[in-house]
Amino acid sequence: MSRGFDEVISKVKSCGMKKIAVAAAQDSAVLEAVREAKAQGIADAVLVGDESKIREIAAGLGMDLSDYRIIDEPDMAQAALTAVKLAHDGEVEMYMKGLCDTKTFLKSVLDKEVGLRTGSPLSHVAVFDIPGYEKLLFLTDVAFMTYPTLEDKANIIRNTVPVCNACGVTMPKVAPLAAVEVVNPKMPATVEGAELTKMCEEGQITGCIVDGPLSLDLAIDPEAAKHKGATNRKIQGDADILLFPDIHAGNLVYKALVHTVPGVKNGCILTGTKVPVILTSRSDTFETKVNSIALAAVVAAELN
Amino acid sequence: MSRGFDEVISKVKSCGMKKIAVAAAQDSAVLEAVREAKAQGIADAVLVGDESKIREIAAGLGMDLSDYRIIDEPDMAQAALTAVKLAHDGEVEMYMKGLCDTKTFLKSVLDKEVGLRTGSPLSHVAVFDIPGYEKLLFLTDVAFMTYPTLEDKANIIRNTVPVCNACGVTMPKVAPLAAVEVVNPKMPATVEGAELTKMCEEGQITGCIVDGPLSLDLAIDPEAAKHKGATNRKIQGDADILLFPDIHAGNLVYKALVHTVPGVKNGCILTGTKVPVILTSRSDTFETKVNSIALAAVVAAELN
Lengths: 304, 304
Prior knowledge:
Two copies of one chain form a homodimer. Chain A is of the alpha/beta class. The first copy, chain A, has helices at 4-15, 28-39, 51-61, 76-88, 102-109, 150-166, 188-201, 216-220, 222-227, 247-260, 286-303, and strands at 18-23, 43-49, 69-72, 94-97, 123-129, 137-140, 173-176, 209-210, 241-243, 265-271, 277-278. Chain A has a six-stranded mixed beta sheet. A five-stranded parallel beta sheet of chain A has the order 3-2-1-4-11, sandwiched between helices. The first copy, chain A, is elongated, with a radius of gyration of 19 Å.
């Protein structure tokens, strides 16, 4: 039976190919990922950017462009606006960063006329397939929101639940993480963990089960939960969403997993937008870029 | 060639056995670890606590006590004070928590008359042997100091450098970690990372090389450092000490490593004390407890 990212990719293939608009597509690593995604039946792409450079890079990669729509727009900021408008207008179902700096790219995402605002704040979710953990883990926010407030954290959960749903997790278990699993007034992250739990019980956060504060062992290790006698907890080593206290904690755990766990797989998207946004980093592997496209595609399929 | 914890244990064996005083030794897991440490030639122990209970538990474990000094002190707090005084007076070289709550144990460590104060604040170091990383990694502070100030962070480094030295690392590379590797005034952890680097350059922190702020990939992955073009950094994926912004970031990474990396080994001690202090958690594995004793012993050998 397929599981983890393999399951996500199978699900995407069964939905029919959705399309990505790439902002400033003249980027070798991005074009390679886009080609692979198309070859695997995960997604098609519209390439917006400097057409002559796109053709030159594609030639170097031995990539056949005859099957792609290309929109020539050499100016980076203008290419981003043109590409994001395709997503805004519903011509494509995903939006992806190419050779465009992050600031310009996000400006296009947030553009009031042609951007992808929904009223919800943007947040980032990194989806992990960790050997030994039996389901996907949704880490948030490890890259975008720096010091989320309680309200931000509630919104991060609200942004992340539909991503879980799209990946087949119907009622995700959310672990607001901290160093300890008990409320300590001197540690705001633990207080907020309890408050988020209450907000979920009261119906202010729906479609999920929140149980915080939690330490990471109780969140992801059933043996540890058993050993510590956490039998009264709603999460006992079986969390789906790991909600981090701040970007440092989230990013450091994210990179610890990527750089120390053999065979780990991950993919990331921005959420809180009209369509899923793919914002890969230059240090992401080829596989991570393709996984990110698959993740965006499965979310896009759910939205449509 | 032995490396990692095997190397630490080899080194300890060559130094001759040092002694631990155990506070409230009537604890099955602690007695098992103490027995193993003695069997391996890592450390001997003086067992302070409720003698009848100690003998009962030892009988259940098939543990021969004829070779151990036992001091009968049924009262937990008194047992801690009696045990810590042995360390204070130089009769033993390490101090370890048994069946004693952490608060009472720490009170004994900080006792003005018989405790182990040095004037430096206490901090915790977790030493990791991670398959694929070629040297030991010293994580601090993942369990004790909650929200260290800049001065606290300088002291944490000062506490940790001698532990590295004892493990054979002569000029450790210290990575003050953050989500990003550049100074961002909106992220205090990055500002403090730069300040600690400056303090080291100015000679306020000695015996190590500090290079912060650093993201975790640049700190521990030479390939990532190369890929990101970090050729001007003093640390290029070869850090020894990982200094965390706060306890949440530290503890979450610590538990991510323990609970997701196959074959990982670790041991922990408290530092900033007159002698190394072993404060294992009930959720630590048997191997981790033994490693913690070995770590304390190698530090004790360096001090003597």
